[in-house]
């Protein structure tokens, strides 16, 4: 073999080695990134300092909702992100959630209200960490090293609990399908983010109110009497079994919240064909003022 050929071969071997090392380095970097992107909110609280969910105060969350969420559920993420004081208030509220005990006796409605508020507050915090963004779905991919639903954790009662776990392991097993009209994954297709905190004493009224609002929107419910058909949000397709074992039971469950007596009667009779509307993953953000607009509004008064 000629000297030039030997030199070329040596160069190739070095290049392959460097390439292999680089690939290995990239692989390790991805693993590190995925590990680093598991974020945990709230402190670890000793069992002796934990309180019943009956005792957790949601007033601070209520204040933030009143200030940054409008009647339609649109969220002023930019305003909240831009306020150091209110961002700190959100962090303090989430830290307060961490004081709750998973073992101490609490009223069922207080537990339900706690987990709904926790889901919504942690979701808002998760969006703020990524904002500006156009959709939560931009941040729920395992291949990107971070899934907001799985990797954003809340310390509660000494355990780390994800948004997925709050929904599927804490709330859904309680057997109240109305929670699907209360927990909000920061999307237009979700129910509105109610601009008041859920509390145990008024929970039933609040859940009923938001369920009625949900079905009042054409994006979630349409009834055609001529063709005897319902078009329902995909939420009713994804979680239909939470409302009942079959279509008849599911329609009876939602009948009280439908916007007209005619639609309610059709639901009770199971006298309709059911299809589903396309779900919008667009961020549930308040509409931004037009460029050059002189109109000034309160943070909680803008409409989508």
Could you walk me through the main structural features you see in this protein, from its secondary elements to its overall organization?
By secondary structure, the protein is mainly alpha-helical. A three-stranded mixed beta sheet has the order 1-4-5. Strands 6-7-8 form a three-stranded mixed beta sheet. It has a two-stranded antiparallel sheet with strand order 2-3. Strand 6 and strand 7 (229-233) form a beta hairpin. It has two domains: 39-199, no CATH class; 216-277, no CATH class. Mean pLDDT is 88; it is low at 1-36 and 293-304. The protein has helices at residues 3-36, 59-68, 77-82, 84-97, 108-130, 148-151, 163-171, 203-216, 235-238, 247-254, 261-269, and strands at residues 39-41, 140-141, 146-147, 152-156, 159-162, 221-224, 229-233, 273-277. The radius of gyration is 24 Å and the shape is globular. The protein is built from eleven helices and eight strands.
Task: Set down the secondary structure blueprint.
Layout: H1 3-36, E1 39-41, H2 59-68, H3 77-82, H4 84-97, H5 108-130, E2 140-141, E3 146-147, H6 148-151, E4 152-156, E5 159-162, H7 163-171, H8 203-216, E6 221-224, E7 229-233, H9 235-238, H10 247-254, H11 261-269, E8 273-277
Parallel strand pairs: 1-4, 7-8
Antiparallel strand pairs: 2-3, 4-5, 6-7
Helix pairs in contact: 4-5, 5-7, 10-11
